[in-house]
Structure formats: structure tokens, C-alpha cells
Amino acid sequence: MSQFEVYSPEGLRMDGRRWNELRRFETSINTHSHAADGSSYLEQGNNKIITLVKGPTEPALRSQLDQTKATLSISVNVTKFSKFERSKSTGNTKNERRILEMQTALVRTFEKNLMLNLYPRTIIDIEIHVLQQDGGILGSLINGITLACIDAGIAMYDYISGVSIGLYDTTPLLDVNSLEEAAMSCVTLGVVGKSEKLSLLQVEDKIPLDRLENVLAIGIAGAHRIRDLMDTALRAHAEKRVLNASKR
Amino acid sequence: MTLSVAEKSYLYDSLASTPSVRPDGRHQHQFRPIEIYTDFLPSSNGSSRIIASDGSECIVSVKAKVVDHSLDSDLLQVEIDIAGERDDSLITESCTSLFNKVLRSIDTKKLQLTKKYSFKLFIDVLVLSSNSYPVSLISFGIYSALNSTALPKLVSNFDDLEVEELPMFHDYDLVPLEVNAPLVFVLAVVKNNIFIDPAANESEVANNGLIVSWSDGKVIAPIRTIALNETNTKGFNPQLIQQGIKLVDQYAEEIAKALTNL
Amino acid sequence: MAKDIEVSTAESQFILEALKQNYRLDGRSFEQFRDVKITFGEELGDVLVELGRTKVHCKISSSITEPYEDRPFEGLFFISTESTPMAGPQFESGNNTGEDEVLISRIIEKAVRRSGALDIEGLCIVAGSKCWAVRASVHFLDCDGGFVDASCIAVMTALLHYRKPDITVHGEKIIVHPVDEREPVALGILHIPVCVTSSFFNPVDAEQNIKGEENSEIVLVDATLKEELLREGVLTVTLNKNREVVQVSKAGGLPMDAMTLMECCHRAYDITERITDQILAAVKEDIAKRDKYSAILSSENAR
Amino acid sequence: MNAEISYLDNVDGSCLYNTPHTRVVASATGPVEPKARQELPTQLALELSVRPAAGVATTREVRIQDSVRAVITSILAAYKYPRQLCQLTLQVLQAGESEELFHCLELAACVNSAVFALVDAGVALTALALATTVALAHDGTATAEPSRQQLMDARSVHTVVFRIVDGKPEDILSMDSHGDFSEADILKVLDVAETSAKQLNAQFRETVLARVNIV
Amino acid sequence: MSEVISVVSRNGAFQKTMIMEEFSSDESEDDYNMTGSEDEEEGEEGAEKSSSKPTSKKSSKNIDSELMTPGELITSDPIWMRGHGTYFLENDTYSSVAGRVSKVNKLLSVIPLKSRYAPETGDHVVGRIAEVSNKRWKVDIGGKQHAILMLGSVNLPGGILRRKSESDELQMRSFLKEGDLLNAEVQSLFQDGAASLHTRSLKYGKLRNGQFCQVPNSLIVRSKNHTHNLPGNVTVVLGVNGYIWLRMTSSMDLARDAPPGGSTQVSGGEASGRAAGPTGAVSLNPNASLSITRLEEESSWKIYSDENDASITNQLKQTISRYANIIKALAFCEVGITHERIVLGYEASLAYSDVGALIQRDNMEALGADVLNAERMRGNAE
């Protein structure tokens, strides 16, 4: 079997996972307590992402002031060193359309999940730094934001968990890495809590219409598992804080 | 950071008096504690993350690329991104140009692979948050990142002027890069006193700032002044520059050792 | 967007209340796609698409240039979408970084360019040195909702309609034959993607949407501008006649049940089939008409 | 020439302007609230952009834009709308001429469509402006509204904009000439252009009248 | 460890917690680990299959049942009134934050583990002027929005009974300007949750003669009294919002804290003062003879002076720095900050003659532990 076979007849992927296995998922909460009101650090496979949430706080610009709800702003900084090959672009990556699209998608995802109406006349500023990327980045960003917003104590309806699923011939592969992402069509989901509701759905390459449903089902199951992993991590973190608080 | 007039005059008086009192009780030469994490980015050749006790944080990646050094003689390139600042903002540009200058003190011979090819190092700095002038933090970051950098081991011939071949590398053996990265210190001048590693509130009342670079046992160029705030900056006694240099001379070695002892 | 255009409270309540009672302002059913009108200009590859009152113009142009270094066997293909205040006060001149502008241009990009609707290898003339650069310039003239859907139809129709001048290659030298000397050549179109946009409305509370079991959200196909301004979520599905999903974009917005989204996709397929046929028929008819003229012309010349 | 007024829904005034070879859509929005940087204390600010049929705007479009701006500002009753803004957008759908060589047909179409759009929007004007293009062939014949081929064969090409007062062309607001020509040629061209402008004006009134009658 | 710089370093890791995982993945987490948490799924890595049930279901039952995370069902019992941190659909009440459930009478709310300061009426806060606008100051108190301090809610020079004039509106910056620190009481809350402050008592107003420091607001516990005199002639103002002011003890501070009849009476007097009428005339302490003259005196321009007392010695500044470091150390150990703990911390800190040594991580941890130990001992003794 070739080392570079995307999916071996034995049912193994390039990194040794089975089709329905997630990547390593590790997360820390409240990692940057000095710099932000809420923060998280997430490693989903080789994706390494820092998320900082600042606010809700007084907006600096009048245009950011909404009488009825908080203004949500998200900026994604994909560092030049985040990929194996350093990005050659000389200019600012922050204005690339791909990044702008991602930011808009993230804002619109969380606008419906955070209870922004509880924080009128304020701004919530989310700053994301992608230190390393290895596929399924949008899903990882969603997870990082969910955790950081919870850490900031911002009220929300439920977790949103993100994951990307590839379709290799007829086999869906859960939580794709960058090699898999390049080799096949992928679907990215943002799932609300333990429901079957999708906040975000993106398909960027051709997929047979009649396979889509199956891919979504696998993706939703995977996203639910990610929600549970986040919940477990959060509870562990919370227990410790509660323990500390009892010392007060 | 805006301080009230009363705060400023309290701080200024404390720092200007003899003996001086720093707001956190530090000695004139004492740094705030830092945390360093290195080598956490597997897709970079070297990486570091420095966190100061006030939450200032900076992440550095070192990536190497093989280049023909006759075509590209600039073997070290620093790019700095300060979160919340535009790429063309004054602070970003001045830090970038400072470090591109400071790093010239590194002997690039160490990067040479063959007669034709060298490694070119791309040093990317991301300042996640900073409360005071971040150059010290950045220099510690670059220092640690370069210290943690390991490059592929060359297996092909050194003399390749005649052969049309790219250098070949060992499949997995890496060689640690051994360079003497320079350190950059910020000092704050308050009246007739000078302090290493000024905190944000100290910077706010400083009469002037001094940037002193140091490498391999001695103070090197550039040494320059820097206004640390917009309200209190004024001229200072030239002897303070000597004092500053002396301070750095005296303690830099210890810092370097502390940063190296991983 | 430059200016927030808003629907007055009274009107928005009226529209939403009507939706709850299964009525749309223009009398369409929820699943109904507006009629598409395709008109061709004098030149080849000049198409005006009207979707209801929405008007989008697309013009294809081509030139000979150098291919990208890392892709020597491929030609160049650009789609430019520029919005101006002409389409409505919500658009700003020269600003293409607004949220909606970015989403529109990215979806069209993914639907047409990234999906390989145009055979760019067929644009290669001399590998590594000469190739065709094809540009589709999309002009948003009037916005009454459904820009993405209309633009995609416009671009695909224009690409199918366009003919690039014939060429002869002599080594490195290329002779471009004027259109009146030699019959120009059609572009290689590999598939015809069609975008169908569904808009979502929540007639109940956010809590019901998140935690409720009912899935009472309202789904409208092909929203008008007013409906777009009031909607809480949007899904654009791009399909082709081969039952391939080319692109799906639900960039946040109202969370929707996965099965409902699948239904949207299946519904979109029916519309896709119909639109594809309409595009092909329209192009065929117009090209045939031109042939007739040229037949007359050539016979005149013969005289 | 034929023009469809109120062609668009979401602007105050618009017009689809057709000549045998050139097509331009013009839209006018205004007077509206300007951005702070556009605001003029005593008069109407004009935001004008000309978009080419293919590709992105280049210096060529900027040049057309400048000529149109000069004409429009001279007929706008700008003093009536202090601190307000008028947005004029001119989208060329079909150039009708080789874009590398000429811009005269587009210029004329842009001016005329812009005037139509402003009239449709009900923005106050001090006069009308109408543009016409005249090609002077090598044999000395001057043709108004030349075809693509006539342009290619012409010795010189002229786009003339007249200010129309009391239904008659009065002053020249702008003239844009290319090629070789003599003083006598110019006079001949102006003569032809004036006749053409008169015709245009008649058509213009007819179109507007038809529109007014509908309303 | 170097005296010049203390460095905590790790190779091959992004942060400290990752190391913990590698070396002690089988151990339960301990107090040492403070900056974050790790994912317990590590051990299961690779073993995960779609069939393996995620652990959260069982853990949510096992751990403290009062810990809630967003979207979690708290109760289906409709008797509860739903408070902050919850939302509901029909009879079901869900949590909207991660935190502990609080049940007060019939009010059910979830208190987030951490959030920005949420002002409550009566809170004693320290704030910084962010903006001077029409008849009001906007004050940064670390909340979601700036607090409002109306011109009418401050004592102006010239006595308490003086009427406000237009000239006061024009010279607002001569009272308080951008950057100025003050302490104040939250008088009321606006509809949107923003606080309205007042300084109409002599214990509130502009802050001088000292140094500012800041801790997370969750570490400050609301109590009757937030101004405390400390050993070494230092007074601390512990703003409920986590903003803290350390200053030289003034004669006012002494007067407040030197009651004839014990501390309870003083705080009682203050409590009544707080509830005083809008003029604030009785808001001083009960020593009436002292207060009247003082009021006259303090209500002069001096209360808005930017000048520090010339009598602050270097020795005192050292002590203030020491206290600042103690507070930072307590915050570092995530220990709640109270008057008693600051005093205990001070006593423990005297073991370090060098104030600068207190910024070292190890010393901060040791100090935090010392304070908790001392507290326990004292508790046992009582």
C-alpha cells in the first residue's frame, strides 16, 4: 500500500485514521486572560488557533454603535507561516476575498447564536490568529470562537461546533486534513448544539447531489462529538475555577 | 494608556527620586518574569512564544528556504505583524526596520550550504498583545526561536559550482542552527535615572527611552532613543546613555543565559 | 454596503404576516423561481438577464496573453463583479469589500470558475508562452434580489454565446483572424452550473428555532429585494444537470434543519434543469438567427 | 437614437441609451445625503463613475469621466442643493467602437444618457446638453453619428457637446477632436454637428414628452 | 534563578498545560494548573469510534450538578422565574452561559464563571474618566459600557448647597478630565445596564497620593466596606469592579477608621450615610462636629486637585509597591481579595525584604499559599 493513498482498501487514511475518526482535539480555555475578556487555544489535528474575544465593551467608533444589540466583529489573521510553505504574498492577507468571505460567514453564524440583544450599544470584537493550518480550518475557527465566547461569559443559545467532511469516491471521511482536502470534495458544517440544525454549510467542490445527505449525516454526528469534547474540556476548566472560587 | 495627572506625578516622583522606587518594587536592572515556549510549530523550522507577566505576548516562527545566494544575498528576513496595528503603521514599520538592521550582526556564513546555495531564514513575528514598546519582547522571541531552529542536514557535496544540482538533504536528521542572535533592550530615562524593561505605566512617565542592542558579549549598533510617550518626552543627560550601555553590558549575558537554558 | 436600506416596520410586519399565511407580495408560491428573460446584444457574448425586475448584464471579452508560470497548459479566466450605486443605494462605487459584495463574487467564482465550467486548458495556445485570457465582466444594473442567481445565468449564457476569434499558430507567431474573415470559435463549456437561492424566515422566537422540534421556519425560493432585506438566513445551491452539487453556501444565518436544506437542494435541481434548458435554447436560437443574417450577408457579397 | 427612460427601479432617474452601435445605461440618484468627505457647503456634489463594457475601469474611462463631468457640472443647477449629493453612474454595455482606438461614441452616449437620467431624476438643470459625434472622411465628407467602419476610415473624429437653449444649440460645452484637420474642417464639422444636435433635441423632447404623458 | 530575570520555559509546547498532559495524563488535574484546562480525551485519541459514547453525558451527572454549559437544560419545572444566564422555551429553562446555577427564592439564574463587571446599585467602584461630554462624564469602570457620572452627581467646590451654574458646565474638565481616577458609588442602573454614578460623599471623588492596580472583578467580593486602612500607613480602595487604588492614609481615612465605638458602628454609620438624601449633606461619618468643618474644608477646590501630598516618603512608596505586588500575587493565585487577606499577605510578604522579589512566579504562588494557610490557622484558632 502506498504511503500516499488517500484511503486504503483496508480502510485507513493517510494519517492512520478510520473514515469516521476525528483528529486529535485539544483545547484550553482562558489562555490569554490579560489580553482579552475571553480566550481559547485550539489544536484540531495540526490546526493551531488562538481566539481572543474582547468585549462586550464601549465601541470606539460611532458607526459600530447599535442601539438594539451588540455589534459583532470578527477578524481572522492567517499568519504567513501557518502553512508548510510560507505564504509568498507580499501584501496583507487580511484583505483577501477568501478571508473576507470567511469573516462574514463567521459573523453571520455567531450573530444568530450569541444573544447580542442583551448587550446594546456595545461591541464584541473577536480576533483570531491561525498559527498553523492543516485542513478544515473554517470548522476549527468556529470551535475556537465558541469556546472563547463562552469564556468571555457572553450569553449564547448553544454550542456551535464545526467540522469538515470529505467525500472519497463514495466514502465520507470525517474531519479532513489538508492533504485530504486537496484530494477530494469537502463539506464544512457548523452545527448547533446536539441538534440537526445547521448554522453554516459550505460545499466548495463538486459532489453528487445524491451523496450529500449521507455526508451531512456523518458531519452532524462528528460535530456532535466535537461539541462533547468541547463540553468536557469546558467542564474540566469550570470545575477548577469553581474550586478556586470556593477559596474566596 | 491614559493616566491621571496625580498618578503620573506620583510615578514620576517615585522613579526620579534617589534611590528610586519602581511601581512594582523592581531594581533598576530587573526584568519582569517571562514565560517561553519553543518549538511548538512542527511546520516551521523554529518557533517560540514569549509571554510577559503583564500579558504581552509574541509568537515567532522561523522558516528556512534554499536560495541561490548569488541571486539573493539577504539571508535573513524579518516581518513583524502587531495585532491591532496596520502593516504600514509607524510602530510596525519601525520595529521591522530595526530588526532587519539588528539581525545583520548574525554571521550568515552559518546558513551557507554549498558554494552556490544557502538557507534563507524567514522570521515572522506576531505580536498578539503588547502594553509597552514591544521590541524587547520581540528580540527575546527571535532569540529563542533561532535557538530552537533546526535545519535539514546536507548530504550532497559542498562544492557544487560545476554541477547543476540542488542541494540534497538527509531524510530526517536535523542540525541545530547555532547563531548568536542579538538581543534588544528598552530602557526608560526618568530624570537622572535609567531603568531596564519599563512597564507600561513607567513608560508613560519616562522622559525618554533608549534602545540598546547587544550580541555575543558586547553592545552593538543600533543604539537609539525612542519616545515612549507623547507627553513627558524631553532631552536627557548624555551620561545616561553610558549608564544604559553599562547596565546592558553588565546584565545582558545573564539574560542570554536565562533565555538559552531551556 | 454604503447605506442601510430598510423596510419600514409596518411593511416588514405586513410582509412577514403574509408569509405566515402563505402569501408572497408578488403572488408567487414559495417554491416559484421568477421568470428569466435573456436578451442578447449586437455582439457575441453580450447578454442581459432579467430575473423579475433584477437586471444583470454580462460581457465576455478575450485577449492573448502569457499563462501563469506554474500553470503553463492553462489559459486565464477572470470573472469581475463590480457593483455601483446604479443597482441601488446599498451599493457603493468602487467598494468591493462589503460583506454582500464579497459573498456574491465568491459564490459566482466558486460556481463558475472553480467548478471548471470553462475549459481553461482549451485556452492554451502555446504551452508556457501564449494563451487566451477570457474575462467575464458582470454588471449589476438593477437589484430586486437574486443577484447571484441572475449573475450565474448571465455568465454561463454569455460564455456559451461568445465566440473568440480564430487563430493560426506559426511557431511562436500567432495570427488572429478578424471575425469577418473566419468564423470565430466557441469556448469549451464543460458543464452549466445554475445557482438557486433560498431564503429563510423565522416566524417564531429564536428559542423555538434552536430548541424547538417543529422546524416551522419558512423557506422562499428566489427572494425579491424586500424579502432579502427581511430574511434571516440564506442558502445558495449551485447544481448542474448531471445531478452534481457544484457549490453550496450557507454562510451563517438562521440555523436550519439539515433535512430542510436537503429539500432545498432537491428543489433547486428541478429549477436547474429548467433554467439550463432555457439557456441552451436561447443561445441556440440567437446563434441561428445570426447565421441567417450572415447567410444573407455572404450571398450579398457574392453578388 | 433611442432612449428608454426610467429603465431601472432602484434609482431616482435612469435611462438605457441606444444608438445603432453603442449602448449605455445611466443612473442618477439624488439629491441625497452625502458622505462627510463629499459634502460641499454651498452646492450639490457630483459623484460620477463611468464603467467600461469589458474589464475594469482604466485611464480611458477616467478620461471619459472627466469630459462628462465638465459638461454636467456646467449645466447642473448645483446651487439649488447645498450639502447634497448626486450620484451618476454610467455603465457602457456596448462600446460600438474599437476600444483601443476610440472613445468618442461612448463619450457622446455617456453625455446624452447622463442628461436623460438627470432629467428623469428631476434634478434641476440650467440647460440641456447634447453630444454628437462627427467623422470627417478623407474625401472631406462629414458624417454625424458614424458607424464603426466610418470611424476606422475617418481622417479625423470630433465629439461636440452643445448647450441647448430654447430648443436650439447655443454654445459649445466641450469638443474632443482626434486626427488631422484644418480650421475649415472644424467649421464644417460644427455645422454638421449642429444639425445633428437639433435632430437629437427633437428626439429628446419626443422621448421625454412620451414619458411625461404616461405619468 | 537569575535575579535579573526569571524565565519559565518549555520546549516543544505551546503552553504549560500541554506539558501537564504529556507527563501526567493519567493523573487528575491539580491546583498547579491554572492557566487553562486540557482535554481529557487525549487518552482516547485514536481509539475513538463513532460507536464510543462521548463522555459528557455521564460527566454532567457526576460532577457538581449545578455546573451548566450553554444550551443545557436546567429544569423543565415551570415554577421558576428565569433570571440572567438563562433562556426558556415553554416550560424548559436552558443555560446560556457556562457557570453555576443560583436559586434565590423563585429566581433561577446561571452565574457565568467570568464576565465583564456588571454594576449593581450601591457598588463602590473605582473608575477612570474616558470622556467629558455634555453635563456628564463617561467613566470607564471595566463594564460592558462606560458608566455615566452626571455633573449634578458630584460635589462641586464652594459647598454642598451651592447651585450649579452654566459656568460649571463649561469648566467640567477643571474638575475631572480624561484619565482622571475617581471612586464612586453606583447610584442607579439605566435600562440597558449602564451604571449611573455619584460621588456625593466625601469618601468618593478624585483619587490622589498613590498607585493604581487592576485585578479580575470576580476576585472582589461585595461587602459593606471597600476602603480599608492597612498597616504601614496605606489605604486601599477595593473597587467592586476590580479596579484598586492604593494610597497614603489621609486624615480622612483615619477619621473614618477611628471610631469611638468599634468598627461595626462606623460601617453602620456609613451605610446610613450612603442612603442619605440627594444633597449628600449627611453622608459623612457620624462625628458631626468633625464632619461639618471638614465638609467646608474639603469641598473647596482641593478635592479636585491633581497635586499629590508632598509628605509621601520613599519608604511609604515602597510599602505601596509592596501592597500592589501582594494584590497581584493574590490575583495570580485566583484568590479572592479581601481586607484580611491583604493584611495577611502583607505579614507574609515581610519575609521578602526585596519588594521586587514578589513579582517572581514562585514567590507569588508561595505568598498565595501562605495567605490561605494563615487564614485556615486563624479560622481554627477562633
TrEMBL record, chain A:
Compartment list: Cytoplasm; Nucleus, Nucleolus
GO MF term set: RNA binding
UniProt domain Exoribonuclease phosphorolytic: residue ranges: 21-154, 158-221
Cytoplasm recorded as keyword: yes
One of the record's GO cellular component terms: cytoplasmic exosome (RNase complex)
InterPro entries: ExoRNase_PH_dom1, ExoRNase_PH_dom2, ExoRNase_PH_dom2_sf, PNPase/RNase_PH_dom_sf, Ribosomal_Su5_D2-typ_SF, RNase_PH
Segments traversing the membrane: none
CDD domains: RNase_PH_RRP41
GO BP: any one term: TRAMP-dependent tRNA surveillance pathway
Alphabetized UniProt keyword annotations: Cytoplasm, Exosome
Gene3D superfamilies in alphabetical order: GHMP Kinase, N-terminal domain
Annotated Pfam families: RNase_PH, RNase_PH_C
Protein origin, superkingdom: Eukaryota
Family in the record: Belongs to the RNase PH family.
Subunit structure: Component of the RNA exosome complex. Specifically part of the catalytically inactive RNA exosome core complex (Exo-9) which may associate with the catalytic subunits RRP6 and DIS3 in cytoplasmic- and nuclear-specific RNA exosome complex forms. Exo-9 is formed by a hexameric base ring of RNase PH domain-containing subunits and a cap ring consisting of CSL4, RRP4 and RRP40.
PANTHER family tied to this protein: EXOSOME COMPLEX COMPONENT, EXOSOME COMPLEX COMPONENT RRP41
Name recorded for this polypeptide: Ribosomal RNA-processing protein 41
Species in which this protein is naturally found: Maudiozyma humilis
Automatic annotation (TrEMBL), chain B:
Pfam families documented for this protein: RNase_PH
Alphabetized InterPro entries for the sequence: ExoRNase_PH_dom1, ExoRNase_PH_dom2_sf, Exosome_comp_Rrp42_subfam, PNPase/RNase_PH_dom_sf, Ribosomal_Su5_D2-typ_SF
MF (Gene Ontology): mRNA 3'-UTR AU-rich region binding
Cellular compartments annotated: Cytoplasm; Nucleus, Nucleolus
Keyword Repeat: no
Primary residence: cytoplasm
SUPFAM superfamilies: Ribonuclease PH domain 2-like (SSF55666), Ribosomal protein S5 domain 2-like (SSF54211)
Source organism of the structure: Maudiozyma humilis
Protein name: Ribosomal RNA-processing protein 42
Gene3D superfamilies: GHMP Kinase, N-terminal domain (3.30.230.70)
Annotated keywords: Cytoplasm, Exosome
Family: Belongs to the RNase PH family.
Any GO CC annotation of this UniProt entry: nuclear exosome (RNase complex)
Record domain Exoribonuclease phosphorolytic: where: 30-152
One GO term of the biological process aspect: exonucleolytic trimming to generate mature 3'-end of 5.8S rRNA from tricistronic rRNA transcript (SSU-rRNA, 5.8S rRNA, LSU-rRNA)
From TrEMBL, chain D:
Keyword list, A-Z: Exosome, Nucleus, rRNA processing
GO CC, any one term: nucleolus
GO biological process: exonucleolytic trimming to generate mature 3'-end of 5.8S rRNA from tricistronic rRNA transcript (SSU-rRNA, 5.8S rRNA, LSU-rRNA); nuclear mRNA surveillance; poly(A)-dependent snoRNA 3'-end processing; rRNA catabolic process; TRAMP-dependent tRNA surveillance pathway; U4 snRNA 3'-end processing
Record domain Exoribonuclease phosphorolytic: where: 1-123
Molecular function terms from GO: RNA binding
Localization: Nucleus
Keyword Nucleus set for record: yes
Disulfide bond among keywords: no
Family to which the UniProt record says this protein belongs: Belongs to the RNase PH family.
PANTHER family xref list: EXOSOME COMPLEX COMPONENT (PTHR11953), EXOSOME COMPLEX COMPONENT RRP46 (PTHR11953:SF1)
Protein name from the UniProt record: Exosome non-catalytic core subunit
Gene source species: Maudiozyma humilis
TrEMBL record, chain E:
RNA-binding is among the record's keywords: yes
UniProt biased composition (Acidic residues): 23-45
GO term, biological process aspect, one: TRAMP-dependent tRNA surveillance pathway
Main localization of the protein described in the UniProt heading: nucleus
Domain K Homology: residue ranges: 210-250
RRP4 S1 domain segment(s): 116-188
Subcellular location: Nucleus
InterPro entries: Exosome_cplx_N_dom, Exosome_RNA_bind1/RRP40/RRP4, KH_dom_type_1, KH_dom_type_1_sf, NA-bd_OB-fold, S1_RRP4
Family recorded in the similarity comment: Belongs to the RRP4 family.
Protein name per UniProt: Exosome non-catalytic core subunit
Naturally occurring in which organism (per UniProt): Maudiozyma humilis
Phylogenetic classification of the source organism: Eukaryota, Fungi, Dikarya, Ascomycota, Saccharomycotina
